[in-house]
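In this section we walk through a basic example: taking a raw amino acid sequence and producing a predicted 3D structure, encoded as discrete structure tokens. The instruction is simple. Fold the sequence below.
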Amino acid sequence: MNVLAQQTEIEIEIEASPAGFFETPIAYAHLKNSEQLIQSLEQSIRHRKSQDDGLQRSNLGGWHSDTNMLDWGGSSAKALANTAVKLAKRMSHFNDKGIDDYLWSVRMWANVTGKGGLNQPHVHPGNIWAAVLYLNMGLDANVETSVGGEFYLEDPRFPMLAMHTTAFRLMGVDGNPQNYQPEFKLSRGDLIVFPSWLRHGVRTYSGEKQRISIAMNINIIPKQ
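The resulting token sequence is shown next.
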């Protein structure tokens, strides 16, 4: 192995500027004036949970509904789906057709997480966008206590597993080292829309009350 010396006989002048490529768009939104809609969604979820044992997917220690919430979630679920699709459309482009030359479809499900629950890192293959809405954070109003359960996204270029020096980070165009697993500080009514291939998960939740969220897969079908 050749170790470079700090000083050499020849010093080269350079003119360089940072450039960012392969940008990953993510919508981080909040539903305004939507308390009635949120309460309606939460009521539908609690009713469904009382009748259904749920599914096992990325969830550990929590309840995952079937993916047909658009069928049993009522008009509030349909309104949420339309909102998520509108955000996805704003971040989408197709070289062959316009945005509305495709039929947009949504699969929706609910997650109810109790103490000790989490979601393992995963992706949503076969879709173009994924979305998450938080309905109930499991906290009383104005409580600042940290109970975990942070939602996070993982840098798809994540190089550390293939390197000997796991402390390595890529410098961003802002001059700061990039976080490969950024966490989101979320609250009731927050909606995130992100590419479905972007790996994501939820840290272990330690609160005493149940935390409730809705997840969606968004896809497209060419019109005939």
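Looking at the output, two observations stand out. Helices lie at 35-49, 69-72, 74-90. The mean pLDDT is 91. In the next section we compare this with other chains.
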